[in-house]
């Protein structure tokens, strides 16, 4: 194995503000918005969908400002996993790091499989696995070249998604006021039949769970902080826009869809990327007279899944690198080549993702179990961020520091992290209530498998190394982790 001291390179701080801003901006825009957003309206009505996404959006905003405060003070590769190790308990950092790495390593095969399905829209006679393997090779090459190649790729892929949403909102407003697509529709669908609220509180809660999955990926900006050229400026700027992008891209988009399509429209139930003609975005564009809408949206969704896979490989590689630097993984994964790439962490993650992808050819049950095991990993990571920030701020003041020393202040402390913590627990516990009602143990196992896996990791490390909750006056606030250090800019 390679020794850390023999590493010939170091992590390159080459990501610019525009890269981080667009990574943060595009982090939440994917198939959840383009395809599944309609199902939220169908389930809870236009009002219920807006309330659910609004509450979840507020929670994510608090969560990201918490991450922003820590990331600007201590921009480390590995982000919240390293913060949990330093501010809470090494066992929590160990479990969170492996949990997050596993989440993305398993999600990459899902995204590349989706890319194959999307490509079959144009080339139905070509086996989907050919496209999937091609995408896998493409994202490996992007991540292999340099961190800047990842940043540039994400910048342009995210820009395509952002432009699409902006055009959709403009076209949608034009349809609502009758400028395009015939007579104005106004707000008539908001009081159609049982609208605006359909199904009451239970329906809102069910949409609330879906909204949580839609917003996952916003924490990626914390992972990139360790390779940002000016983290104090770029990280805070990217995170500060979180609330506004959620408001614009999700709340406004759902409002536009709800105005144009009644909640009873069967097309809103579609959640299948292979049926792009039924996407709410496609339907709205067609209503405006754009004949090529389906093909254009299919291309946009292809960029979205490639972007998700690309970010997944980047995030999981950096987390595995961080785990090695903390002593939680083989030291070879902490090796960085001359181009600033943790090459063995990249190769190791790629091997696991390919193995996970191959399980679908062995049997669909094995593949479904893998996907199920990673389902709650994102929410568990959010829990870690909330707990770490609460402990960080308490320790910061306990050790005699002043808030004026922080270059970025989280919004609404301590309410923010406590609110996020409580809502994450609600989301995790409420994932599949129906399965418990029906005593469907197989469904329960698939849904909640991520929780026992996380607990096994946590207690394994805690028992083996006899770790404990770090006292606030003993919390390490130095801006370094093993093998990595950071000196802030002068004021």
Automatic annotation (TrEMBL):
Keyword Isomerase: no
Subcellular location: Membrane
Keywords on record: Amino-acid transport, Membrane, Transmembrane, Transmembrane helix, Transport
Molecular function terms from GO: amino acid transmembrane transporter activity
Annotated Gene Ontology cellular component terms: membrane
PROSITE patterns associated with the record: AMINO_ACID_PERMEASE_1
Domain of life: Bacteria
Major location category of this protein: membrane
Transmembrane segments: 20-41, 47-64, 101-123, 129-147, 159-180, 200-222, 243-264, 284-309, 341-363, 369-392, 413-433, 445-461
Bilayer topology term: Multi-pass membrane protein
Start and end residues of each Amino acid permease/ SLC12A domain: 19-468
Protein name (database record): Amino acid permease
């Amino acid at each position: 194995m390679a020794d850390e001291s023999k590493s010939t390179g170091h992590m390159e701080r080459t990501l610019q503000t525009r890269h981080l801003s667009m990574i943060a901006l595009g982090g939440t825009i994917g198939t959840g918005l383009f395809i599944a957003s309609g199902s939220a309206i169908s389930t809870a009505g236009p009002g219920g969908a807006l309330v659910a996404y609004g509450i979840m959006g507020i929670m994510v905003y608090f969560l990201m400002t918490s991450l922003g405060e820590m990331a600007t003070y201590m921009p480390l590769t590995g982000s919240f996993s390293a913060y949990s190790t330093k501010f809470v308990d090494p066992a929590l950092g160990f479990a969170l790091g492996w949990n997050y790495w596993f989440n993305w390593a398993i999600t990459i095969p899902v995204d590349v499989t989706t890319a194959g399905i999307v490509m079959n829209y144009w080339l139905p006679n070509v086996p989907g696995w050919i496209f999937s393997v091609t995408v896998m090779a493409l994202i490996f090459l992007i991540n292999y070249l340099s961190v800047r190649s990842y940043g540039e790729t994400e910048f342009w892929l995210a820009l395509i998604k952002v432009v699409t949403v902006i055009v959709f909102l403009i076209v949608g407003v034009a349809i609502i006021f009758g400028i395009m697509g015939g007579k104005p529709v106004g707000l008539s669908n908001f009081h159609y039949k049982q609208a605006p609220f359909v199904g009451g509180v239970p329906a809102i809660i069910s949409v609330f769970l879906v909204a949580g999955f839609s917003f996952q990926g916003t924490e990626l900006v914390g992972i990139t902080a360790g390779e940002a050229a000016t983290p104090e400026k770029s990280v805070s700027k990217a995170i500060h826009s979180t609330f506004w992008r959620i408001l614009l891209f999700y709340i406004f988009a759902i409002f536009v869809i709800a105005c144009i399509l009644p909640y009873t429209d069967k097309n809103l139930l579609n959640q299948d990327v292979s049926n792009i003609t039924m996407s709410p975005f496609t339907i709205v564009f067609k209503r405006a007279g754009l004949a090529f809408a389906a093909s254009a949206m299919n291309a946009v969704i292809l960029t979205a899944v490639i972007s998700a896979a690309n970010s997944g490989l980047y995030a999981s590689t950096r987390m595995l690198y961080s785990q090695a630097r903390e002593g939680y993984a083989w030291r070879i994964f902490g090796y960085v080549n001359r181009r600033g790439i943790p090459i063995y962490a990249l190769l190791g993650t790629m091997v696991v993702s390919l193995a996970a992808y191959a399980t679908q050819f062995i049997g669909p049950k094995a593949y479904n179990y893998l996907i199920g095991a990673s389902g709650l990993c994102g929410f568990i990571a959010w829990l870690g961020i909330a707990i770490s920030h609460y402990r960080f701020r308490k320790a910061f003041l306990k050790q005699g520091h002043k808030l004026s020393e922080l270059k970025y202040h989280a919004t609404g402390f301590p309410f923010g992290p406590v609110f996020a913590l409580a809502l994450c627990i609600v989301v995790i516990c409420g994932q599949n209530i129906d399965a418990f009602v029906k005593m469907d143990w197989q469904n329960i196992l698939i849904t909640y498998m991520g929780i026992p896996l996380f607990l096994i990791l946590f207690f394994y490390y805690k028992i083996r190394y006899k770790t404990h909750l770090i006292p606030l006056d003993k919390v390490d606030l130095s801006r370094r982790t093993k093998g990595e250090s950071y000196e802030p800019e002068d004021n």
